[in-house]
Amino acid sequence: MLDTFLYILGILIFLVGIAVSVGLHEVGHYLPAKKFGVEVRQFMVGFGPTLFSKMRGETEFGIKALPLGGYILMSGMYPPATKPHRGLFANWINEARAEIAAQEDTEESRKFYQLSAPKKITIMLGGPVMNLLLGVVLIVVSLSGIGTLQNSLKVDQVYQCLEVDSAGLCEEGDPLTPAALAGLQPGDEVVAVNGELVTSWAQVTSRLEDKASSQLTVLRDGVEQTLTIEPIFMERAVYDAFGNLELDDQGNPLTRLTPVLGIRLQGVTTPVALDQALLFAGTSMIAMASFIVELPAQVYQVVASTLGFAERDPFGAVSIVGVGQLAGELTSADIGIDAKLASLLLLLGSLNLVLFVFNLVPLLPLDGGHVVGAVYEGAKRKIVKAVRGTDPGPIDTAKALPLAYFVWVVLIVTGLLLILADLVNPITLG
């Protein structure tokens, strides 16, 4: 019952964190827009039906039913047409422009399209930059303020055999583990290996790797005891200081022969240096950018695994539902409160870095698409002024509506496919 409560609590904490992240993203757009005098008519967190809203000045602030994003609605997103648009989507574009224009009675100087290109870029980058700052802060607090979960030197559990049945018991005739044969007990704290003092479990394993038989000095009830242990060597995956699986140049997991004793160690949160936390944030952003480039292939793999044609990649794409499930598993895991908090902050920090990188994709309706449009507009106006001596005015962003809607459809379909996969074939921490 308690595990279920903690699981649900983790999901709720995650949803609140998502809502705060989305809200701050929109604050990053809202503040420069107001600074530049643009009328902001709506500030909404979420999509779908409005659950709550309140007018403050000229802006309606509200929360919508689906916490999967947000938006601010600025006056003058589409400039008035200089001539009727013609083409395949002419009626669609003209009707959308007319509908929005009919709702706006703002003076021309306060409309978004009247801004210079640098001001438009500042407004559009404000949201992603807010996610970048929030992501880095959360990661630094998680890794340097609280710490990562590392193995301590104290034994938490001693296993009697390496393989157990469904009830967790050894079968008759199974050999005992090295720890059981040596007489290790829960609560023992390893202080030395072969007479050399140790301060981390990494030192213990490195000093056990060279010998078939070693002397462990343990502290038991305040008294030192020396035990003889003969570890078993097995191929195990290699993880870095942040718990990430290390890969070779071909992307395959690195493994090495590791001494296995047959114990579980007590965990302890150990803060990492600030520069290491910042390095982790930087390398995470690079990895996320690469991941987004590979997203179509990732989605294909997820769909194939959902249909039973392949195994699901535990490091592949997940939806917001999948990330929420991981948050629930973290809060219900058998680790300390500090480790749970650090893991949740790291999860939310990483998600904010995803929002930063993803929103920079140069496609409408993402912020990166608006930035590209502003850069193009600024370059065009400068060139035309230099050549013809006249200002051609702002570009007609309404013409990009078909592309924006197409991208929206792709994003929605992709999201639904990932959600289905997370419900049918979820990725778990185990």
UniProtKB/TrEMBL annotation:
Can the keyword Nucleotidyltransferase be found in this entry's annotation?
Answer: no
Cofactor(s) needed: Zn(2+)
Keywords on record: Hydrolase, Membrane, Metalloprotease, Protease, Transmembrane, Transmembrane helix, Zinc
Instruction: State the Pfam families in the record.
Output: PDZ_6, Peptidase_M50
| Cellular component per GO, a single term | membrane
Where does the PDZ domain lie?
174-214
* Coiled coil residues, start to end: none
Q: What protein name applies here?
A: Unannotated protein
Q: Where does this polypeptide localize? A: Membrane
Q: Per the UniProt entry, what species is this protein from, by scientific name? A: freshwater metagenome
Q: Any stretches that span the bilayer, and where are they?
A: 6-25, 121-144, 341-361, 403-424
Q: Provide the topology term for how it sits in the membrane.
A: Multi-pass membrane protein
Question: Quick one: a GO biological-process term for this protein?
Answer: proteolysis
- Which GO terms of the molecular function aspect are on file? metalloendopeptidase activity
Q: Which CDD domains does this chain map to?
A: S2P-M50_PDZ_RseP-like
InterPro entries in the record: PDZ_6, PDZ_sf, Pept_M50_Zn, Peptidase_M50
The chain positions of domain Peptidase M50 read 14-385
